[in-house]
Specification:
55% strand, four-stranded antiparallel beta sheet, mainly beta, globular, Methylamine Dehydrogenase, Chain H
Length: 212
Amino acid sequence: MAINIFSADRTTNKIYKHDGFSASILDSFSSPSTLLQGLTFDGTNLYSSDATTDKLYKHDGFTSSILDSFSSPGTGPRDLAWDGSNLYSVDQGSSHIYKHNGFSSTILSSFNDPVGGVADQGITWASGNLISDSCYSDKIYKHNGFSVSILGSFSSPGGLPSGLTFDGTNLYSADTGTDKLYKHSGISSTILDSFSSPSGTPTGLTNENIGC
């Protein structure tokens, strides 16, 4: 499967579209506010979060044009995920991970993060299970569906894991300690490839499927 990676950078407050999984940039635009955090993509439209406004945004495709937004359920939104129907958000202020009803402020379910009182940074949805990470434990967790129950975990490749995304086969992670983006072999600690982020502080990650 061929993909393009999208990355968020809170130093430049820009969202980048990469050429595949590489440092080459195809496009970029400025985020809606000044503390860009999470990203996810539904196949058509991009979603982002910002910790200054404490809002979640729905973009018109891959553009700065905003179709909709609402306030985060907590006071420090971080990464986002999409399961095909519903949005997920992680919030550092409340130390909770939330399942939203579609793209709305209505919460279907939530639980405390697996570290125990210190919220995760990154989340993604992978074949029916939530994947999360924590920059405090330096670990990546595979959850049992959308629950606090952990099926497995492994150490992140850097010291400060942030955004996560999954392409159907492999996991990708960003790290604000090494300022790198990593491609994992499946959902494991084995790294297939990595490169430096366009600027200094990569946060959210997502991807688009561009075919075979």
